[in-house]
Amino acid sequence: MMFSHLEPYAGDPILSLNEAFHGDPRDHKVNLSIGIYFDDAGHIPVLACVREAEARMLAESGPKPYLPMEGSAAMRSAVQELLFGADHEALRSGRIATLQTVGSSGGLRVGADFIKRWLPASQVWVSDPTWDNHRAMFEGAGLTVHTYPYYDATRGGLRFEALREALARLPARSVVLLHACCHNPTGVDLTREQWRALVPVLRERELLPYLDLAYQGYGEGIEEDAFAVRELACAGLTFFVANSFSKSMSVYGERAGALSVVCGSAAEADLVLGQLKATVRRNYSSPALHAAGIVSRVLGDPALRAAWEADVAAMRDRITSMRRALHQALSATRPEHDFGYFLSQRGMFSYTGLSAPQVDRLREEFAVYLVRSGRICMAGLNTGNVERTAAAIAAVV
Ligand code: KET
User: At CA 391, angle to CA 315 and CA 358, rounded to 5?
Assistant: First the structure.
C-alpha cells in the first residue's frame, strides 16, 4: 500500500474543534471556538451590502474568466485605499504592490514563499502566543520561526519593553509578524504610542515587519484599526500587510483577502509584484472572481460602503456588550476573581487563562467549546447563552 506509512492527522486546534462542535448533538451547545462573528440569534450574518453586491453581480450576469494572477484591479485599488487612505504618499507614488489573494491566509503564505525565495537568510519572529497557523504557514514555506515576548499572563497585558528589547537584538532583515489590531488569541494590542515607539527599532535594525490585519473594524473602527499600517507606511518602512474581509464583511467561505508590500520605490514595487505573481501562479494560479466582485462593489459604491461601515460598527458594539454581560455575570458569581480582562481586551477574542483541563471540562460537561489555549471567541456569545456560559465558567475556575 502506497500510503500506509502516513502519520494520522492530529487535527487543527481551531478548525477541527469547530467541526467537533457541529457534530455535538446537545441542543444547548455554545460555540466560542472559531473566530467567526455570530449575530444575537447565533447565525453568521449575511450583510445587506454583500447581498446587494451579489444581486448586482447576478443581474449583470457576465462571463466568468480567470482573474489575472494578481487578482481584480478594482479590488486591488480599493484595498489600497482602505488600508492606506486614498491620499497616502506611498499609494500615490506607486510603491505598494497589492495582490488579491485566497483569503488573507493565501496572502500570508504567498508572502512567506516570496520571502523564502528572495530573502532566504531571513528568519521569522511571531508573538508569544500567536494564531497557531502563523507558525504552520511560515514553517510550511521552509522558514525558521521563533517567538518574541508579547503577553504578560500575570497582568493580562503586554510585555512591551521585553518585546522592544527582543526586536532590538534581531539580525537585519528578520521578519517580524505583528497583529495590526485585535491580537489573536490575546485581545491585547499595542497602543498608538507603543507603535510609534516600535518604528525606530524596526527601522534601525532593518527589520521586515509583516502585519496581519484580519479583524479590521472589530477594534476601534475601520479607519482606526488601520493605524499601524499607516504609521509604518508614513515612517517609510518596507513591510508586508495581509488583510482579510472574512470577518469584516462576514464572507468567510468566499476567501476574500489581499497582500500588500510597501516598497522603497515604484520600480521596486514592480519587481515585487512580478515575483508575487510568479509565486501565485505556482500555488493556485489566480484568486476568486466572486470575492473580488463583492469587495470591489462594497468598497467602491458609496451607499454600500456606508451600509458596510454601519454593519461593522454594530458587530463591534454587540461584542462589546457581550464582554460586559459576561464580565458582570462572572463577577457576581465569583467576586474573588478579577475578570477585568474581558473588558480591557479588544476584538473577537479574550484570553481567559483557563487551563486545558478546564477547557475540556467546559466542553464535556457544559457543551461550551473554546480553544484549548483558553481563547474565547466573544462573538459566539449572545443574550440567550451568555448567562449559561458564565455559569459554566464559574463552575470550573
Ligand atoms: N490571520 C489571523 C490573525 C486570523 O485569526 C485568521 C483567522 C486569519 C488570518 C485567516 O483569515 P482568512 O482571511 O479567512 O484566511 N482566524 C480564525 C479562523 C481560522 O483559524 O482559520 C480563528 O483564529 O479562529
Answer: 95
State the pairing for strand pair 96-102/375-377. unpaired
Does 31 sit in the ligand 1 pocket, CB within 6 Å? no
Residues in the chain: 397
Q: What's the pLDDT tens digit per position in 280-297?
A: 999 999 999 999 999 999
What are 371-397's pLDDT values in tens digits? Answer: 999 999 999 999 999 999 999 999 999
Ligand 1 nearest-atom number relative to CA 104: 13
Least Cα distance to 56 among 301, 254, 312 occurs for: 301
Q: Identify the CA nearest to 115 among candidates 209, 214, 243, 213.
A: 209
Say if CB 108 and CB 134 are below 8 A apart. Answer: yes
Q: Which three cell numbers stand for residue 358?
A: 478546564
Interval between CA 350 and ligand 1 midpoint (Å):
15
| pLDDT for the residue numbered 155 | 86
Does the active-site annotation cover 125? Answer: no
Tell me, yes or no, if the pTM score tops 0.90. yes
Residue 254, C-alpha cell as written in the block: 468566499
Residue whose Cα lies nearest atom 1 of ligand 1: it is: 214
Whether 29 sits among the annotated catalytic residues: the reply is no
